Amino acid sequence: MGSTPTSSSSSSVSSSDANSWLVRGLFAAGAALAVASGAYLALSLPRFSKFRSQVVGIIPARYASSRFRGKPLVPILGKPMIQRTWERAKLATTLDQLVVATDDEKIAECCRGFGADVILTSESCRNGTERCNEALQKLRKKFDIVVNIQGDEPLIEPEIIDGVVKALQADPDAVFSTAVTSLEPEDASDPNRVKCVVDNHGYAIYFSRGLIPYNKSGKVNPHFPYLLHLGIQSYDAQFLKIYPELSPTPLQLEEDLEQLKVLENGYKMKVIKVDHDAHGVDTPEDVEKIESLMRERNLS
Question: Where are the membrane-spanning stretches (predicted)?
C-alpha cells in the first residue's frame, strides 16, 4: 500500500471554491480569540517574520489504549496499522522527516522493522500533542512545524498532511492548523466522531463530541453542512513547547478534547476543509470495515 498512488476520487483538498476558507484566510490577521473567563491568562498571539519551512511529521502511538489495547499493532490486510499509516504519510511532500513516537518497546521494535525512525517517549504523556512535544525535544534537528499524524487513520491522504502544513505556513497568526470534512448524518450522535464549527475566516470556534450546531427541533438537519474533525493537526514548534505548560481547561476536561485547551487560552487555529472518507480505527470492529474498503479500492 505504501507505493499505491493516492486516488483523486477518494480524497483531495478542496480548491474549486474561490471563497474557500484556505484562500480567504491566507492573510487574515487579528488578535487572540476573546477569552470568556477572567481567570484565564491574557495571551497575545505571536507573529512570525520568517517562513516556517522545516517540517517534521510525528505519529504518536501507545499500546495501552483504553478502548483498543495494542491498536497500533493490529494487522490490516497483513500489515500492522502503524505501518499502514507510516507508508501513507511518507507520500506527503512537505515533510522533511517522519518519526514514530511511542512509549512501548513492542511498537518501537515493529516500526524499526519496516524502516521507520522511532523516538521512545515517557508513559506520562496525557495525549498525542504532549507525546509529539517530547519527541520534538529529542530530535537533533530544529523544526518550525510539527505535524501530529493520527496512527489510527491508515488511509490518511498525503494531500491532507500537506494541506494542514501549508495552511499554517500561510497564516502567521495561527499556531495550530487542522482539517475537517463533511459529517455523515449517521455519525451525528457518535461521540467518537468529533464535530467542529468555524468562523467566516476559517478559524476554529469550537469542537465537540456532541452535534454542533444544535437546533430547536433536536434533530439532524439534512441540509446543514456539519463538519467532522479528522484529527490530523500541525503546530508551530514554539507553541508546541508552551502547550504542556498550559493548565487543563474546563471545556477540554468536559469534552476530553485537547484542541479546546488551545482555543480556551486564546490561540488561533486554522481549519481547512477537505474531501475525505474518514475511516479511523476506534474499535476492533472498525478493522473489518477498513479491510473491506481497501479490497474495494484494490489497495494492498
Answer: 20-43
- H or E element in which residue 57 lies: strand 55-61
Nearest to 30 by CA among 256, 268, 270, 279: 268
C-alpha cell belonging to residue 285: 470492529
For 34, the grid coordinates are 476573546
Q: Closest by alpha carbon to 102, among 63, 51, 153, 46?
A: 63
C-alpha count within 13 angstroms, C-beta hemisphere, residue 55: 25
Q: What is the pLDDT of residues 101-156, one digit of tens each?
A: 999 999 999 999 999 999 999 887 878 888 999 999 999 899 999 999 988 888 88
What are the domain boundaries of the chain?
50-295
Could you tell me what percent of the chain has a pLDDT over 90?
Answer: 62
Strand pairing partners for 137?
Answer: none
Tell me the CATH class for 50-295. Answer: alpha beta
Query: Distance (Å, rounded) from C-alpha 183 to C-alpha 264?
Result: 24
What's the sign of the alpha-carbon dihedral 30, 32, 35, 39?
negative
Q: What is the percent of the chain with per-residue pLDDT over 70, rounded to a whole number? A: 81
Question: What are the residue ranges of helices labelled H in 139-223?
Answer: 158-170
Classify residue 37 as exposed, middle or buried by CB count within 10 Å of its CB (0-12, 13-18, 19+): exposed
Give the rounded distance of the alpha carbon of 199 from its chain centre: 19
Amino acid (1-letter code) at residue 254 = E
CB-based burial of residue 27 (10 Å sphere; 0-12 exposed, 13-18 middle, 19+ buried)? exposed
Closest alpha carbon to 21 in 214, 211, 203, 233 = 203
| Residue 48: pLDDT over 60 | no
Q: Grid coordinates in use for 102?
A: 511511542
